[in-house]
Amino acid sequence: MLLRLIALLFALTLATPSFAARCGGDFNTFVAAMSAEAAAAGISQGVISQALGGVQQDMAVLNFDRRQRGTFNKSFEQYVSTRVGSGRINGGRAMMQRHAALLSRIERQFGVPPQILVAIWGLETDFGKGDMGRLPVFRVLATMAHDCRRTELFQAELLAALKIVQRGDLGLRDMIGAYAGEIGQTQFLPSSYIKYGVDFDGDGHVDLRHSVPDVLASTANLLHTSGFKSGAPYGEGTANFEAMREWNRATIYRKTIAYFADQLVGR
User: Fold this and answer.
1) Which residues contact residue 68 at a Cβ distance below 8 angstroms, ignoring those fewer than 6 apart?
2) Beta carbons within 10 angstroms of residue 147's beta carbon
3) What is the residue-level pLDDT of the chain in tens, covering all 267 positions?
4) How many Å apart are CA 182 and CA 4, to the nearest integer?
5) What contacts 38, CB < 8 A, 6 or more positions away?
6) How does strand 135-136 pair with strand 176-177?
7) Do residues 126 and 88 make contact, with C-beta atoms less than 8 angstroms apart?
8) Is 267 exposed, middle or buried (0-12, 13-18, 19+ CB in 10 A)?
9) pLDDT at 14 (0 to 100)
């Protein structure tokens, strides 16, 4: 996720205009400036006041972010042994059977095989049964946006999170996520939620917390949009392995996805 954030920051420096809110300084003044920025972007005053009214800076989030180092310092063998065990493999195979028809529909539309989607789903939140994060997204994103190290990145993520609520995809009480504001069963940043989210169950909303069809189709859409090709190999050194860089730039993580996917289909 840290590498994904770095890639997004680079893209934003090339393509995104400077935001009006100045990082650092008084936190409440910063939030007021972000509220004005959100209103200018078309977010309603009701959503702004509910999401940002009384929001507090979270130093635990900053401390966690600043000590993130060496996540992938292990060898592939060491790392994969902690992430892909027999229990998770068996759980993934059960999910492939339970959602076989859905996964087949998604593969026909987006060209991403079931085992890749289920592998990502399992690694991110143990198929939606594990930890999707317990932190209020707006508190996290306001805190990170106020910090001057990556303010443009997180100002953009904060506006995207407000858009998720504005669209009615998630209510405020469901805007709970991880330490960088990741949301849902495959841990989308809010900007990716807006860009790649798919309403695959047809209820009029993109719900990446509760709707398995939306979760899996949105994940497939991200990979498809990034160049993932149907029927082609996905191991290290392939074009599909490179297409998965949009999911995670770390080679060891993508190797783990590919390994897990192969285990799910008995390779």
Assistant:
1) 2
2) 18
3) 544 554 454 444 433 444 568 999 999 999 999 999 999 999 999 999 999 999 999 999 999 988 865 556 789 999 999 999 999 999 999 999 999 999 999 999 999 999 999 999 999 999 999 999 999 999 999 999 999 999 999 999 999 999 999 999 999 999 999 999 999 999 999 999 999 999 999 999 999 999 999 999 999 999 999 999 999 999 999 999 999 999 999 999 999 999 999 999 998
4) 11
5) 48, 52, 158, 159, 162
6) antiparallel
7) yes
8) exposed
9) 39
For the CA atoms of 91, 216, 176, 195, what is the dihedral angle to 10 degrees?
A: 160
Residue 52, judged by CB atoms within 10 A of its CB (0-12, 13-18, 19+), counts as buried
Helices (H), the chain: 2-15, 27-40, 45-52, 59-66, 76-83, 86-98, 100-110, 114-125, 137-146, 151-167, 190-196, 212-225, 239-243, 251-264
**Predicted pLDDT at 12:** 45
Residues in contact with 81: Cβ distance below 8 Å, sequence separation at least 6, in sequence order: none
Cα–Cα distance list, 78 to 119, 120, 136, 252, 256 (Å): 18, 19, 32, 10, 11
Question: In whole angstroms, how large is the CA radius of gyration of the chain?
Answer: 19
Per-residue tokens: 13: 């420096």
Residue 136: its H or E element = strand 135-136
Kind plus residue range of the DSSP H or E element containing 135:
strand 135-136
Cα 156 to Cα 9: distance, rounded to the nearest angstrom: 10
The owner of tokens 């805190």 is: 143
